[in-house]
What we know:
Order of helices and strands of chain B: H
Mean pLDDT of chain A: 92
Strand order of the largest sheet of chain A: 1-2
Strand content of chain A: under 5%
Number of strands of chain A: 2
Distance between the termini of chain B: 67 Å
Oligomer: heterodimer
Number of domains of chain B: 1
Number of helices of chain A: 21
Largest sheet of chain A: 2 strands, antiparallel
Largest interface: A-B, 47 and 34 residues
Order of helices and strands of chain A: HHHEEHHHHHHHHHHHHHHHHHH
Shape of chain A: globular
Amino acid sequence: MEFLLLGITSITIKQLTMWAIGGLLIYLAIAKDFEPALLLPMGFGAILVNIPMSGAITQVMNGTPMEGILDFLFKGGISTEMFPLLLFIGIGAMIDFGPLLSNPFMLLFGAAAQFGIFFTICVAALLGFSIKDAASIGIIGAADGPTSIFVANYFKSSLIAPITVAAYSYMSLVPVIQPAAIKLVTTKKERMIRMPYKPEGISKKTKILFPIVVTVIAGLIAPTSVALIGFLMFGNLIRECGVLERLSMTAQNELVNIITLLLGITIAASMKADQFITVRTGIVIALGLVAFIFDTIGGVLFAKFLNLFLKKKINPMVGAAGISAFPMSARVIQKMAQKEDNQNFILMQAVGANVAGQIASVIAGGLLLAYFA
Amino acid sequence: MSSNLPNFLTGLKIMGFGMVGIFVVLSLIFVAIKVLIKLFPAEPKK
């Protein structure tokens, strides 16, 4: 009868703590609507893998390893980079690059708002992380879950679980983080700058050729990024070609839903108590916030720098929209602009910058991979 | 902290490489968009 009590008597304080963390993630997902599609499966998975001798993960029985389903899914879906890349097809199919193509100048803000990634790499390196772990932590600033998972896994980082938790948590906290960071570095007068919107007309041929051209340009400069940028642009090409409506809908809905369902619970395979409850996890989560803050500040300061030379001033908040958290960041910027001046409409410019950030964040990830290749 | 200095300097190098690289790639994409718009202008709205 002792075997019936073996599980209960084997529970450790760290495992109980992970149950609490799992419960917290589930609470944040349901009660606060914080990226529920990822945080809920991760929270539940954290509980699954921290039950003593859990059959969901690999256990050694009488000297024989018995592979658990979550480790199997991790090996097949995360270690191979398959899950984040398939997710990118769906994300690409969801994106309308029209506001960016109409106003391509916004690309520059997408670039500037990746500053937080590299700033955080420096800080993490200074704090004693290896350079590859620092790069894995810095990529939280891409504000893009699949890119963060892809890069962290590429560097075989043991920090993939806190990196993923941080990335998705802070993405849902953009409405809290960005306004505070923007107000730190802008004046009311700057936030009230109005920007006329004169979009260029975009032909269907341009929309079809754009994803192909982007893949080739990014691929020639950073070949290691071809999988990342290529799958994103493949999804977009399916959307824009006009002859694959069924595939586009499948990519945007069923594919994204299935992969998201599996991704969150699979990432939890690396949320075992001994690996997760460390000082390093706390530092990673703190550095993730640094990355998001400095992404915002980088985009805003770049816009302010350009304003020194431009006659028609840019509202610096548009720079902050260059972060990849789409479409939340664009909406946050428009809300802030209308709070200062209820006749100020900069949503389309912010959307253009936000969409540019999607491309820029993937390229940032690709360049990191290229540097270490 | 001083023992982390070599890693920090590598981080600075990565920052330079990364930020310059992103601006270069996105500037090329900017030029490509302008060329595409010129080659394939939108049809005027009827």
